[in-house]
Amino acid sequence: MPFVLDLIKAIISLLVIIDPLGNVPIFISLTQKATAGKRTKIFRTATTVSLILLLVFAIAGQQILSLFGVSFNAFMIAGGLLLLAISMKIIIVGEKEKSVTEEVGAVPIATPLLIGPGAITTTIVLIHTSGFLITLISILVNFLIIFIIIKFIDRIYKFLGKVGTVVIARIMAIFLAAIAIGFITEGIQKIFFL
Fold first, then answer.
1. What's the domain range around 159?
2. I need a labelling partner for 85 at 20 to 30 A (CA). Which of 6, 74, 116, 124 fits?
3. How many CB atoms lie within 10 A of CB 141?
4. Which comes out higher in pLDDT, residue 80 or 11?
5. Is the pLDDT of residue 102 over 70?
6. Residue 97: pLDDT over 50
7. Cα-Cα-Cα-Cα dihedral of 112, 68, 139, 160, to 10°?
8. CA dist 74 to 57, 126, 151, 183, Å?
9. Is residue 17 part of a domain?
10. Reported pTM
């Protein structure tokens, strides 16, 4: 029974951090100019890259950051700055985006939107608190959820419509900017005040 409870806790904590459903309007906004086929390729790339990233950090996250001499706090600040830049682009540029390439699937969708400092930190903490098996299962369950959401993203897109997508994407971009500032301030606080 403790195994099941720990597993549920791990799945939920990772799902809240990754927040694939909350990111749908941003995903749609970033791929708005892409054809349906290209959007499918972008999301396939995003899912594959983010799953590989999270598994790599689950196995060797602490060692990777140590190898480059990067602290979690510096990682949080860098991730926050990147998210802030993305959110500003969505809010200000919006419809002026002319073309969408498959690289969007890797950056910014896979990282830092799906797998950012929060997801990486949560994964490494889960490894230490719940063990590798629970962490691995929680990662795989989360990616099943992400796959399902992305599979039906065109239907979500059609339901929202063009105006609805723009409005929701820009509102979500404001929340994204707030999350980014949270990452930056938390990183700065931990560096200078702890």
1. 2-9+27-193
2. 124
3. 17
4. 11
5. no
6. no
7. 0
8. 16, 20, 34, 10
9. no
10. 0.70
In a domain, 172, yes or no: yes
pLDDT tens-digit series, residues 123-159: 887 887 889 999 999 999 999 999 988 888 878 777 8
**How many other C-beta atoms are found inside a 10 Å radius of the C-beta of residue 32?**
17
- pLDDT surpasses 70 at 9: yes
Burial 48-65 (b: 16+ CB within 10 A, else e): ebbbebbbebbeebeeeb
Place of tokens 């200078």: 192
- % of the chain residues with pLDDT over 70: 93
Provide the token pair at 46. Answer: 């995003």
22, part of any domain: no
Q: Is residue 125 part of a domain?
A: yes
Residues 6+ apart with CB under 8 A from 58: 123, 124, 126, 127, 132, 135, 136, 139
User: What stretch of H or E contains 120?
Assistant: helix 117-130
The confidence score (pLDDT) of residue 104 equals 82
Higher pLDDT, 46 or 178: 46
Number of domains within the chain: 1
Measure the CA angle with vertex 25, ends 20 and 26; round to 5°.
80
Give dist(CA 85, CA 101) in Å, integer: 18
Half-sphere exposure for 76 (CA within 13 Å, toward CB):
19
Q: Which of 33, 16, 15 is nearest to 165 (CA)?
A: 33
